[in-house]
Design goal:
- By secondary structure, this protein is α/β, with parallel strands linked by helices.
- The chain is 38% helix and 15% strand.
- It has helices spanning 38-46, 54-62, 70-86, 96-102, 131-138, 176-188, 207-216, 232-240, 255-262, 267-280, 299-308, 336-349, 351-360, 365-368, 410-416, 418-425, 432-435, 447-453, 471-492; strands spanning 2-5, 9-16, 19-27, 32-36, 52-53, 90-93, 147-151, 193-197, 220-224, 243-249, 285-290, 312-316, 382-385, 390-392, 403-404.
- Helix 12 packs parallel to helix 19.
- The termini are far apart.
């Protein structure tokens, strides 16, 4: 019998100083994952993308367990892999052809194809905690970098009116040597998720090569693109890669409205055609439809069109200022009255949101929002990097440079950067207004939204103030809370 990890399954073994290793396996087809102990980590590490017999696998594992009876070990290995197979992480078979036949991949022909993770609470082996909580406790609060977003080029062929990156700064391509060196360091740190973005990443002449390179490192790949430059070569490379998703923005099913937002005539037809090509080729796709003044009356058409094609689509009425603290793009942000209409529409038609709000339990807020809890997730498990090697906490916060990979290693920046340490050390008690706010269950602290809209005049340069609360989002949270409470009251009275 041969055993092999599935095409879209990823395995990592995380090591910590003075603590046992833990193994991690995740499936991008159904967004499931498992954390296992040090013994399970050895069993996981023996697996590969090539079929191996139980005897070969047991022999590899036996090197870590001297003196263990061979028959007992083989039985334990068999049981462990049987569990993984029943949970959809690996396949077994007598021949390679049988493995291939069982190794089902993402397909839009499925009744309900999953194109985005809906439940972000993973199933954890031997622990009633989220994956991140488990790993944080296991490694005694020492964060592990698991996700990196890399800007392949800052250039973009669209001029989106709401973009938080000033267009005059979109001028650089990443050097192929720097890209590979970055991936080398990511592999050494056990990185799992790699997002390729821009600008428009397909403007980089080496984009297909970068996809192929990323595959060599066995990363789970996400792509952020407007898809207007999609071609046959790129589609072929996408199909060969282990893509978790391609995320694209579609603003309206009315071409004039979509093109008025991108400022690129013909962009709607190009993006729509590309989306249909990805669906035809069974490439996982997510559609994002940010809502602004221009499309507030037509964004629902995008959600309905996506639903018809079995594509997960989400809308977002949140818009933040540019990272250079200019706020001209906010002229397109919805007013509170317009936000109210969108929220009412969402809670009236989005079943997932209704379930989330019905189960939210506003009264539970005090239990969740403890002062020593992390205020914002930046620098806990992810970073972003622009084409020149500068690293920053999250998308949109490019003026807050925490280091440059040309000057220090990624590991050194992650462990020792003063700015990383500062952000990582912030807690909810550092935002006392938020901690005592009745609307906190309907608002997630976002320091980049604070910083981009609030320039810190006490410092030299263009750095923003992440601690200064953005009042606009406070008002949105209060509005959201009122609408949900009214909706619950109506449900209660039938």
């Amino acid at each position: 019998m041969l055993y092999r990890q599935k095409f879209d399954t990823f395995i990592r073994v995380y090591k910590g100083k003075g603590v046992p290793d833990v193994g991690y396996i995740s499936s991008k087809s159904d967004f499931g994952d498992r954390v296992v102990d040090a013994v399970g980590a050895v069993f996981l590490k023996a697996l590969s993308r090539t079929g191996q017999t139980l005897e070969v696998l047991t022999a590899k594992i036996a090197a870590s367990f001297a003196g263990v009876d061979a028959a007992v070990l083989q039985k334990d290995v068999f049981d462990f892999y049987a569990m993984l197979e029943s949970d959809g992480f690996i396949v077994s078979g007598e021949t390679v052809a049988e493995l291939d036949r069982k190794d089902t991949r993402f397909s839009y022909s499925a009744i309900d194809p999953k194109t985005i993770k809906e439940d972000f609470t993973p199933v954890i082996l031997r622990a009633e905690k989220t994956t991140q909580e488990f790993l944080d406790e296991h490694f005694k609060g020492k964060p592990h970098l698991t996700s990196l977003q890399v800007e392949l080029t800052s250039r973009c062929n669209e001029r989106c009116i709401h973009c938080y990156i000033p267009h005059e700064n979109k001028i650089s391509d990443i050097d192929p040597g720097l890209f590979r060196e970055t991936l080398d360091q990511c592999r050494d740190m056990g990185l799992l998720n790699l997002t390729l973005s821009g600008g428009e990443p397909m403007l980089h002449p080496r984009f297909p090569d970068f996809l192929q390179t990323a595959k060599e490192y066995d990363f789970s790949i996400n792509i952020l693109s407007n898809l207007t430059l999609l071609n046959g070569e790129t589609i072929a490379e996408m199909k060969a890669n282990r893509l978790s998703s391609v995320q694209v923005s579609l603003y309206s099913m009315n071409a004039d409205i979509h093109d008025s937002i991108t400022k690129m005539p013909g962009s709607f037809e190009k993006t729509k055609t590309a989306i249909l090509q990805l669906i035809e080729n069974d490439i996982p796709l997510q559609i994002s439809c940010p809502t602004m003044k221009q499309n507030k009356d037509s964004y629902v058409d995008v959600l309905n069109w996506a639903h018809e094609h079995k594509v997960r689509a989400i809308t977002d009425y949140i818009m933040m200022a540019r990272y250079d603290h200019t706020t001209g793009n906010l002229d397109n942000r919805l007013s509170l009255e317009e936000v109210e209409a969108v929220i009412n529409d969402i809670i009236g038609h989005d079943i997932d949101y209704q379930v989330e709000m019905a189960n939210a339990g506003i009264e539970q807020a005090d239990k969740r929002d403890m002062g020593d809890d992390i205020a914002c997730g930046v620098c806990i498990n992810s970073l972003c990097m622009v084409a020149n090697g500068n690293l920053y906490p999250c998308a949109g916060w490019q003026d807050y440079v925490v280091g440059n990979i040309k000057e220090q290693t990624l590991q050194e920046i992650w462990d020792n950067s003063p700015k990383v340490q500062y952000l990582r050390g912030l807690r909810k008690k550092d935002f006392p207004k938020c901690l005592s706010c009745a609307d906190r269950s309907f608002c997630a602290m976002c320091m980049v939204r604070n910083a981009n809209e609030n320039r810190d005049l006490s410092r030299v340069g263009t750095i923003g103030d992440p601690l200064k609360i953005n009042e606009h989002f406070c008002k949105v949270a209060a509005l959201n809370r009122k609408i949900v409470l009214d909706w619950k009251e109506k449900l209660h009275h039938g």
